[in-house]
Design brief:
globular, mainly alpha, two-stranded antiparallel sheet
């Protein structure tokens, strides 16, 4: 989930490196929630009493909200950090290269680490074709028939959405900013609409036509709105923040969460939108800009790296949380089957 930070808006609290502190904090919070949930419920539960949280709660919704928050942040940051690249020759290639370098090598290393752990410590056979496909972010259906496309490094499924978004965004980078963003929105809208008729046959096509792509659109729209000098009234942002509670309590669970349909988008996406609007909808008064110094920014980046690496690290601690099923692995969280 690595991007440049957002370098705009004088009314935002900035870190010393010029990045919007609110964006950095959102990233760190989202990465921590996802990693903590996976470690607590995908690893610690396999060691005695785990963390002792019990009660049937597995932080599933909180983890999904955190993932969707990453998508909003990605849309927001791409619009702001690329402001000097819109309409420039050569900008597309540079953009794609930066995204590739930031994301794929760490993903490959983490995948290789997981393969080594499973092979050496657990004597698991790794299907070479499936492993290679995962390295280029081509998922596969679990042999059990679960409606959940997976890559070998199971936490890497979000990168399919991220890299798909970056590819589409880069295509239109030679256009002026407003035209480029509208073009990206148009393509994503067509993909989402097409998903209404896409049956769960091809796992990659199924993933890239899910309504969760709307989260990238929300991030881009919020960035364009803020870049024009607009901001929400503080009271409205407080209402959005408080609205997270009823959204979490009263929006019903989706029928098939792993299908990531419209009911899933309401279930996980609405709280995400409220968080993003409350934090990014206007100036955010942090306690002191000095609190977001180089040390804290470094810690935040470490947390974001933890998000990418913890999937392989969990399997090396003496009890593998992953259920090894033929060609792929799946987390210990509940899954839903394809019909």
């Amino acid at each position: 989930m690595g991007d440049e930070g957002a370098f705009i808006f004088a009314d935002q609290s900035l870190a010393p490196d010029g990045k919007i502190a609110a964006i950095q904090l959102l990233r760190a919070l989202a990465a921590f929630i996802v990693a903590a949930a996976h470690i607590a419920f995908g690893f610690a539960d396999h060691v005695g009493a785990g963390l002792g949280l019990g009660g049937g709660w597995q932080a599933g919704r909180e983890g999904q909200v955190a993932v969707l928050l990453f998508f909003i942040v990605s849309g927001y940051v791409m619009v702001t950090a690329s402001r000097d690249s819109f309409g420039k020759p050569g900008g597309r290639g540079r953009f794609w290269l930066r995204r590739f370098i930031r994301i794929m090598p760490p993903y490959w290393l983490a995948s290789a680490l997981l393969a080594g752990v499973l092979t050496v410590l657990y004597a698991q056979e790794i299907d070479a074709a499936s492993f290679i496909a995962s390295l280029v972010l081509v998922p596969s259906w679990p042999p059990s028939g679960e409606l959940r496309p997976l890559v070998f490094l199971w936490v890497g499924w979000t990168l399919i959405f991220e890299m798909g978004f970056y590819f589409i965004f880069g295509l239109f980078l030679p256009l002026p900013r407003a035209q480029a963003v509208l073009s990206v929105v148009g393509v994503l809208a067509v993909m989402i609409i097409a998903g209404t008729w896409v049956p769960p046959v091809n796992p990659l096509l199924f993933m890239l036509t899910r309504p969760v792509l709307a989260m990238f659109v929300a991030g881009m729209g919020l960035a364009l709105w803020r870049s024009g000098g607009a901001q929400a009234h503080p009271g409205l942002r407080w209402v959005a923040l408080l609205g997270i509670v009823p959204a979490m309590l009263f929006i019903p669970d989706p029928a098939v969460p792993s299908a990531m349909g419209w009911d899933y988008l309401a279930w996980a996406g609405m709280p995400t939108l409220l968080v993003a609007f409350a934090v990014l909808g206007g100036p955010l008064a942090l306690p002191a800009s000095g609190l977001i110094n180089a040390r804290e920014i470094s810690a935040m980046r470490s947390i974001c790296c933890m998000f990418r690496w913890h999937g392989s690290g969990c399997c090396s601690g003496g009890a593998c949380p992953c259920s090894i099923r033929g060609r792929g692995i799946t987390s210990s969280a509940p899954c839903w089957r394809r019909s």
